[in-house]
Write a structure and sequence with these properties.
By secondary structure, the chain is an alpha+beta fold. It has helices at residues 2-20, 24-38, 40-70, 75-89, 96-113, 132-135, 188-193, 264-284, 292-311, 316-337, 343-369; strands at residues 121-130, 143-144, 148-153, 156-164, 169-171, 175-177, 179-182, 204-209, 214-216, 221-224, 228-236, 257-258, 261-262. A four-stranded mixed beta sheet has the order 5-1-11-8. Strands 2, 3, 4 and 7 form a four-stranded antiparallel beta sheet that branches. A three-stranded antiparallel beta sheet has the order 6-10-9, with no helix packed on it. Residues 367-378 have low confidence and may be disordered.
Length: 378
């Protein structure tokens, strides 16, 4: 499903924007904004639900405890009253459905930006080599990799699949050539033959595991050398993997450090992601009573998530998308935080705000009297 959405929805939009402004960086920004605008009603529903539940949750918990206590011996009545409570304030799960609906599109967008043309595309083949006298008993079953759309020009891409006709189990001394082909069956080599500078998209072959178990030639022919497990990888260069945008040196650049040198463009993108996430969380609490636990989570969560991308690096193009998406999310949250609440929730919010103001004033007044207490007081 994710591949279908990527090939039939996201890549055509990407092609359209690149045709307007020939910059893959701008195309990423435009694609992100368009998808976020399309998902605005769904994400708005989640933000509204989260805002309302944050206000109503204390009252709902109190009312639920009262209902369960009052109708402990009458389950039918208890469920009826709990249903009325949910009808009054809404279900805490109401905000989850919009998130579930939009997840496939967001995952597809994420996957699109991790592939061609923004990054080199790997095709991985995990092999098992058996002794020659055992391979005859193994049933032959073809192996196909997932399909990836490979850009061969700035506006032309073709889905490419990797196939091992005899499967991933080989006998010592056997050879097999990986077939890179389109969904229609045409070879990837024939596609490149009709493209200017097509040789630049020839795959690079490498044994990433089990170098003594198999070897691989430049044409994708695998030779089984000895029993064991091995992994062969074919990497097709991304058209824009080394294209820059603004301060970004290469959209396909991965990692905070390369060969001991700091990639400051990646560092800035990771920091911008953390800052935009932090601001978005602050905006989500605008107009709400202070919550120490929530405030602590708002400070820790952005730091943890941001640090994660230093250890699990992503391509610069993906980080650019995440920063733009966070900025859009923060703007959406700010707009929705200014919406009028239902009357019952507004009354609860006013009461919570008044109680907190009173508690703060009382605590402040008590601390101001302490300096005037007698010195001898214990």
């Amino acid at each position: 499903m994710i591949g279908y959405i990527s090939d039939n929805l996201l890549l055509p939009i990407l092609d359209f924007f690149y045709g307007l402004v020939p910059s893959y960086g701008l195309a990423i920004v435009a694609l992100t904004v368009v998808i976020r605008l399309a998902l605005f009603p769904l994400s708005a529903g989640s933000i509204r639900s989260a805002r309302r539940m944050r206000i109503a949750q204390p009252v709902m918990q109190q009312r639920q405890a009262e209902i369960k206590s009052k109708y402990a011996n009458n389950p039918t009545k208890q469920q009826e009253e709990l249903g009325k409570l949910m009808k009054e304030f809404g279900s805490p799960l109401a905000g989850c459905l919009p998130l579930v609906v939009q997840m496939p599109i967001l995952f597809a967008l994420f996957a699109t930006l991790r592939g061609s043309p923004f990054a080199d595309v790997p095709y991985t083949f995990n092999l098992k080599v058996l002794p020659a006298d055992q391979i005859a008993a193994v049933e032959t079953k073809p192996f196909n990799t997932p399909s990836h759309s490979i850009f061969v020009t700035s506006t032309s891409h073709v889905p490419v699949i990797g196939t091992l006709e005899k499967g991933t189990k080989l006998g010592v001394g056997d050879t097999e050539t990986v077939a890179l082909h389109t969904r229609e069956g045409g070879s990837f080599a024939s596609v490149l033959s009709g493209v200017e500078n097509g040789d630049t998209f020839q795959p690079r072959w490498n044994v990433t595991k089990g170098e003594g178990v198999v070897s691989v030639a430049d044409d994708g022919t695998i030779t089984a050398l000895s029993p064991g497990d091995a992994t062969v990888e074919a990497t097709i260069p991304g058209l824009a993997a080394r294209s820059g945008f603004l301060f970004i040196k290469a959209l396909g650049q991965v990692g905070f450090m390369t060969d001991g040198a700091v990639n400051w463009d990646i560092a800035f993108l990771v920091a911008a992601f953390g800052a935009s996430l932090f601001i978005s969380q602050i905006l989500s609490g605008m107009g709400m009573p202070a919550n120490p636990q929530q405030s602590t989570a708002n400070k820790i969560t952005p730091v943890m998530i941001t640090a994660m991308f230093l250890f699990f690096p992503l391509p610069a193009g993906v980080l650019l998308y995440m920063v733009v998406a966070n900025v859009f999310q923060g703007l959406q949250t700010w707009i929705l935080s200014r919406e009028a609440l239902p009357e019952n929730l507004q009354q609860i919010l006013d009461k919570q705000t008044a109680q907190q103001a009173t508690a703060t004033a009382t605590a402040g007044g008590g601390s101001e009297r302490l300096p005037f207490e007698p010195k001898g007081r214990k």
